[in-house]
Amino acid sequence: MNTAISISQLHKHYGSLHALRGINFDIPKASFFGLLGPNGAGKSTLINIMAGLVRATQGTVRIMGHDVRRQWRQARHSLGVVPQELVVDPFFTVSEVLRLQSGYFGHGRENQAWIDELLHVLNLSDKANTNLQKLSGGMKRRVLIAQALVHKPPVVVLDEPTAGVDVELRQALWAFTKHLHQNGHTIVLTTHYLEEAEALCEQIAILNQGQLVAMDKKSALLARYPYRLLRLTLTHSEIKIPVTLQEKVQSFKNGELVLRLHRDEDQIGAILESLRTANIKFVDLHTEEPGLEEVFISLTKQKD
Ligand SMILES: Nc1ncnc2c1ncn2[C@@H]1O[C@H](COP(=O)(O)OP(=O)(O)OP(=O)(O)O)[C@@H](O)[C@H]1O
Ligand SMILES: [Mg+2]
Fold first, then answer.
1. Residue 45 Cα to ligand 1 middle (Å)
2. How many structural domains are present in the chain?
């Protein structure tokens, strides 16, 4: 079987709120998989169901073939989850909490070398005997990552691991997850930094309002967007956009006007002519290929 995580007919109701509305998809083994979606889309709910922290209302999730409900132990052993919330136990030191977690998974002293390696890679060695309560947010995040990996799970799920994390740690985290991926781990990542998802993930699923709105290889997803973009830096930000251009506007803020160009027609000349007629001046212009951000916005924007 080539599937690491299999999600089938999954529904979650929180009272009257239908947070997951019949989700079906598979995450292949050894993939680097992005799970994206706006705030409230249901990403953490889905991850918490995988981790056994939230109970699905209907449907199944299997981790490496094990049903998270009926084969809970095997499913849990196959999975390491880095939660979005920074909840840590205030009574333990870093190394105590890792040893406890290791013990929970049935490991003994033989696992100490791996714990030491995790502390080293995550730059936590000098904090090993520090109480968790005394750590900064970024360091707590590192401890949560070490905790998720302590039993060497084949599938690692990271729920916004870089939220509120400084640039240096963010880069270190990506290098580390890439390393895990190269060593055969399946990585599932949620992030609101779309350029990071674009750089790292091979496959991407997009959730919106509890439904799966796209699930594809990154390249195929990017190719779906039918426009190129024309970005103009205007000399003035207080302008009225000519009627002829209004339907092309992708965004306009702080004097930066981004227009959509159909791939198959050359409209740049006509656009420049409209700007000239309206006496709108610019200091810079260039065309660009759309990124994941444009695809994401087009798939998740609210319909008025
Ligand atoms: N324990 C809960 N009780 C009631 N409603 C909840 C609970 N947890 C989540 N929700 C609701 O379910 C929906 C999905 O929330 P979820 O946390 O899964 O979204 P998310 O995609 O992770 O969002 P974010 O990007 O903000 O982390 C939201 O409307 C949220 O308010
Ligand atoms: Mg979330």
1. 6
2. 2
